[in-house]
Amino acid sequence: MMQCFHFIIEPAKTITAKLKESRKRAKNEKKEPLEENLLFIMELARDVNRVCQRSEVLEKIWNGEDTWSTSLCRAFILDWSSLLESKKRPMQTDGWPEQSEVRKQELLDEQDMKRAKRTIVNWAKDLRAQPEQSVWPGEAVAQVLADLQLAWRNGRMPHLLIAMEMLMWVLLTQGLEKETIPQQWLIWKQRTQKIGAVRYIPQSVWDWISNVAVEISLDLDTANPDLVVSSDEKRMRCGFERKDVPNYHQRFDGWWCATGVEGFNAGRHYWEVEVGERDFRLGVAKESALRKGFKSLNTDTGYFTLRLERGTELKALTVPFTALPPSLIPRKVAVYLDYERGQLSFYDVDSRSHIYTYNERFNEKLFPLFGTTEILNDMVITSPGRKSNCLCSSMCLWG
Question: In what residue span(s) does the B30.2/SPRY domain sit (predicted)?
């Protein structure tokens, strides 16, 4: 009991001393002092680094090279305390406490923060009883840590929160399969934080997503008569004349949309689409979804989509719709479907970051959906890892 009490008191003393030192130095240098929640995270990073092998990247946190904003510190503390209080292993994602995107951090009082910190301290007390460098994170996590450190140095990611989370996952899942930890971490992030959960996805995790890439061709029998589709069925734009085509029940005759030829009712699938700076609609449509007229293509009508309007308004077409920050607007979009997990995620390919995730229960075949309002430039379905031809050189594709 005394050992437990000592563990709680000693970090508090250390943080208090550092807080005083920071305030004194800040006063002399006329700068803002370190925030108390950041000091708490710095001490936690030191404890995790002491126990885990290949965790040198955390030194950047506990020595003050990598500093986090006040809101990021608060979110990290509250999210991890919620996870720890759930008393579930991270591999068991069903039934986890969901994080609300509209949660107002400023409405949480200091008592909430104290309770959250106490939960983390109680979990972390066992770390100090473990020998130094006694936990091997696994080769998959070690590769991720190396990638994160390089990305942070090169300015591709603003902070090392991912590294901290990844190693805490290692400690939470001791005895389980370590090689799946990076993937399970991403699933958890997107399940609990649907909007912009990860601003930089490590290379090995990105490879795991994109390795299930599929070739998709546009289905001419579903294309709106106003659309012009290339001969290779990978490009489309709006034409100037409405074509005389059979009015199949699956054909769009209102919105300028088309689906892919192949639908999916199992497995994982990934595809990429170049959208440029123009308006778009991307996602999936249920096989039973109505395609006639101008009825809203949202979750109530069997569509799970991301839409950009007027070049500045990005939204997920939930009911009501979910507005997304302009900073998430992509030029090239990756769509990832995990049918069994009920997950549909969108990513910015260029920045390799997460945009939005639908978490649903899928019970019928889903078809990739593509929509555009552009009359001059193509929406292009591309193969991952291949550079698409420019518009001028692709004119030969048009029949």
Answer: 196-388
User: How confident is the model over 387-397, as a mean pLDDT?
Assistant: 43
Q: Which of 173, 109, 104, 108 is nearest to 135 (CA)?
A: 173
pLDDT at 97: 40
Strands 235-238 and 379-382: antiparallel
What DSSP line would sit under 27-83, residue for residue?
A: HHHT-PPPPHHHHHHHHHHHHHHHHBTT-GGGHHHHTTSS---HHHHHHHHHHHHHH
pTM of the full structure: 0.84
CA distance 224 to 259: 10
Close Cβ partners of 338 (under 8 Å, ≥ 6 residues apart): 268, 344
> Between helices 139-153 and 181-192, what is the axis angle to 10°?
60
The identity of residue 308, as a single letter, is L
CB-based contacts of 91, cutoff 8 Å, min separation 6: 173, 176, 184
pLDDT at 88: 47
Task: Assess whether pLDDT exceeds 80 at residue 23.
Answer: no
DSSP 84: H
Q: What is the pLDDT of residues 81-118, one digit of tens each?
A: 988 887 544 444 433 344 443 344 444 677 888 999 99
